[in-house]
Amino acid sequence: MNHAMSNGASSRPGGLAAKRALDIVVALGGLVLAAPVLLLIALAVRVCLGAPVLFRQRRPGLGGQPFMLLKFRTMTDARAAAGELLPDDQRMTPLGRFLRRSSLDELPELINVLKGEMSLVGPRPLLMEYLPHYTPEQARRHEVRPGLTGWAAIHGRNATTWAERLQQDVWYVDHRSFALDCRILLSTVVKVLRQEGISPEGRVTMTRFDEEVGRKV
């Protein structure tokens, strides 16, 4: 089947316009309404972790083109005697755990949405160094803008395997529509309130995709 034929309403100009309008309205409204919370979190991060308050990292966007993702910092920069960063679980702070558990660390991504670098709904932006490891099918996740949340996020989030997660991303690419986006947003609210699928069992962050690939070859 021609993938362009399976993309539904979002592949048509009207669907794309509706999606972008939703992105702008929700992102702008969210930033305005959450301004006191954003300020409070920024102050807490500054006091507990120091500067910078925001974590910035290049991530692949639409077509794999890089953009600068914004999040609140959740980990220290503590290093071992040799100079390398300590493992994630040793650098994670109590404030960071709370921010991740509540997904409040991702609020600055609304700025990315407002700038058009991200969408409210789409595959999560992963790391640039993962790009060479995707199969051609998995790489199709970059045919749409990355999202604050997505189909994979409401079906296990970070607690699923990479294979499942990337398969769900491609499923979204082929079935995306304005109605599906609304459904995903509503389901995301429930998932966040229940704090489900934040990280794999026994870990504070997800296993790296390139490490998982390396174990298979």
Task: Give the SSE layout.
Layout lengths: L12 H21 L1 H15 L4 E7 L5 E7 L15 H4 L2 H9 L6 H6 L4 E3 L25 E3 L12 H14 L2 H17 L14 H8 L1
Parallel strand pairs: 3-4
Antiparallel strand pairs: 1-2
Mean pLDDT: 86
Strand content: 5-15%
Give the neighbour order of strands across the main sheet.
Answer: 1-2
**How far is the N terminus from the C terminus?**
31 Å
* Main beta sheet: 2 strands, antiparallel
Nearest-angstrom radius of gyration?
17 Å
**What string, H for helix and E for strand, traces the elements in order?**
HHEEHHHEEHHH
How does the helix and strand content classify structurally? mainly alpha
- How many strands in all? 4
DSSP helical segment count: 8
Oligomer: single chain
Number of domains: 1
Shape descriptor reads globular
Residue runs with pLDDT of under 50 for 5 or more positions: 1-10
Helix content: 40-55%
